[in-house]
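USER: If only I could read C-alpha cells as easily as an amino acid sequence. It would mean a lot if you studied the pair and described how this chain folds. Here is the record:
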Amino acid sequence: MKIAIIGAGNIGTAMAALICNSGAEVTVVARGARLQAIAEGGLALDDRGTRHDARPKATEALSEVQDAVFLCVKSQQLGAALDTNRAGIGPETLVIPMVNGLPFWFFLPDARPVPHTDPEGILARLLRPEQVLGAVLLMTVSMDETGVALSTNTPTLSLAPVAPGADGAKVDALIESLNAGGVVTDLSDDIRAKVLVKLMANVTTNPLSALVGCTLEEIGQRDDLCALAFAVADEFRAWAKADLGRDLPPNPWLRELLLDAGPFATSMLQDARAGRTLELDAIARAAMTLAEDQGQPMRCLAAIVHALDIATTLPLDGTACAAALSDLTSLTSLERTPS
C-alpha cells in the first residue's frame, strides 16, 4: 500500500517508523528543519529500548494519490493540512484523522455538526464520509532533543468507517499493514464508544495538566488535582449519558488510569511548555458547547479553559497556580454541595 503520514511530530514519527516495518510505501509530510532532518537521516522510534530506524520518503506536500493518509496534526490544523495535500487524496483514499478530541466525523452520516472542529468547512468539502476512518490510538509518545520518538507502551489502534459505503477490502489491507508493522490494530464495532472513553480521559487531564504543570501520575496522586479531574469527568459523563445515551467508566477507573500512566506529560502540557497553541477546541470546547446546548453545562471544565485563556504564561508559576487551584476547588465544592 501507499501510505502517507501528514505531520512528523510525536505520533506521526512513531507511526511512520512502525509502518515502514510493514513493507508499505511510506511518505512523510513535514516542514522546515524537520523535513530536512527526515530527508537526510530518516526518523526513529525508541519503543522501550527497541529502536526502529526508518527511511520513508519525505516531502513538503503530497503529489501522488495515496491508498491511505494518516492526519497526524493537531485538530485545529486538519483543514489546512488536508487542503495543502489534496493532490495526494483521491476519492478512494482512506483518510484517518488521528485526533485526541471530539472528531468532526462523530455524528456522520447524520448532518449534526461537531462545533469548533471544522470552522471553515474544509473537511466537509474535501472528504466523502465513506472514505473517512475513525481512529482511536492508545500510545504515549514524547520526543527527545534529537527528534527520536520515545514510547513507553505497545501502540494499539482501533479503526472503523464512520459512514456506510467504505471500501472494506482496502480497510482490511490497511489493518493488515499496520499489524505487520507493529501497530496492534483492530476493526472496531463501536468506534464512537472508544472515542468517548479516550476523550473523557483527555478532557479531565489535558487542560488541567497544561494549567498547573503536572504529569498524569501527579494528578492521580494528589487529592486536590484528582478531585478536579473527577469533577470534570462527572460533567462529561452526565452529558454523554443525557445527550448520547452512553455510559462511561467511573472515577476509580480514571484514577487507576492516571496512576498507571506514570510521569507522562500530556500532549497539552508538552504544548504549553513549548509555547504552542493548545488543542482546546476539539478536546474541550466541542463537548462543552454540545453540553451547553443540551442544558448540561460543564462549569468546572469551563473554568479551567477560562484560566488557560487568560494565563500569560503556561504552566502557571507557583503563586498563580495556588490561586487558580483555590478558585477551581471552591467551584468544585459548590458543584458537589447539595442545595
In short: The CA atoms of residues 5 and 15 lie 8 Å apart. The chain has a mean pLDDT of 95. The first helix runs from residue 10 to 19. Residues 2-189 form a domain with the Rossmann fold fold (CATH 3.40.50.720).
